[in-house]
Amino acid sequence: MESRAYALITGLFVLGIAGCIVLWAHWLAKTPIARTAYRVVATGPVSGLNPEAQVRYRGMGVGRVSAIALDQKDPRRILVNIEVDDNIPVTRGTYAQLGMEGITGIAFVHLQDDYKDMQPLAKAVDGVAEVPLRPAFFDMISDSAEGTMKDARELMSSMNGLLTPENRKRIGSTLASLERISANLEAASARMPATIARAEAFLSEDNRRLATGSLERINETVKALPDLTRETQALVKDARELAGQVGKLSNEAGSAAGVVRDDTLPRVHALAESVERSSQRVGRLALQLDREPQSAIFGRKPGRPGPGEPGFQ
């Protein structure tokens, strides 16, 4: 009797569980989820993405992946059919990216929106709107790393082509020359303090005063040059006039030698002596300037002292 009661209780429990399941399924059937079909178009690989994978909108689960297939018209395109809840705003600014579920490697479709165009997404010829698939952050890093590695390989190849044995010898010679230049610079730097000390000694206060006095004398001499030039020109002009007068007097003396001999000849002799003295002065001045042109600036050098004069030896 007890075994029959136990079996009856067990049967009633199983029937109750089955009834609850039926009621729960009936309740779910009364509230179906309304979803809209979209097509994600990918031109790159979609590794880790499988049918029934999740579709998320800004991190929220909003649908699932229904199918994945190649485009029969263009094999370069991969068509990922997705179903998204009707209350999700899919606009012309919406785009898709592939995300990864932690470290499992299972991918999901992540819908994003840049909000640049809030118009509803246009549908294709078959009535299904297409959402472009953009590379994710890690995809861009992977592409950049691949390009960087390619550039690094090209750089290494170029470096290997550049570092031939001849170029290595040239680089070694250049480095040796640089080392010698560096040694010379060090030696020159070591001599610099002594050079600076000599320059400071040369530019002492006494030497500066002497240089200042010399410059002042040079300036005075330069200022006096125009006067000296004018005096020389006047002396030459006087000499020419005297020569003309001598010639004129000579002609007059030749024509009237017998008449004015006693009166003209003494004057002619005096005039000739004056002309001779002037010519000698001009000659001495020209000879002095030819021998010592610096005397026009610094003056004549003092002569050697004679007997009885200071400094005579």
Characterise this structure.
This protein is α/β, with parallel strands linked by helices and 313 residues long. Among the domains are: 35-135, no CATH class; 220-298. It is 57% helix and 16% strand. It has helices at residues 2-30, 137-162, 165-202, 205-255, 261-291, 295-298, and strands spanning 35-42, 54-57, 60-70, 78-85, 94-100, 107-113, 129-132. A seven-stranded mixed beta sheet has the order 5-6-2-3-4-1-7, with no helix packed on it. It is rod-shaped.
What key attributes describe this structure?
313 residues; alpha/beta; seven-stranded mixed β-sheet
SS field, number of helical segments:
6
Supply Rg. 60 Å
Oligomeric category: single chain
First CA to last CA: what distance? 169 Å
Shape: rod-shaped
Q: Strand fraction band?
A: 15-25%
Could you give the order of the helices and strands?
Answer: HEEEEEEEHHHHH
Question: Numbering strands along the chain, what is their spatial order in the largest sheet?
Answer: 5-6-2-3-4-1-7
Structural class: alpha/beta
Question: Uncertain regions: pLDDT < 50 for 5+ in a row?
Answer: none
Mean pLDDT over the residues? 76
**Main β-sheet: number of strands, strand sense, barrel status?**
7 strands, mixed
Estimated helix fraction: 55-70%
Find the count of extended strands (DSSP E, 2+ residues): 7
Summarize the structure.
The chain has helices spanning 2-30, 137-162, 165-202, 205-255, 261-291, 295-298; strands at residues 35-42, 54-57, 60-70, 78-85, 94-100, 107-113, 129-132. A hairpin with a 2-residue loop joins strand 2 and strand 3 (60-70).
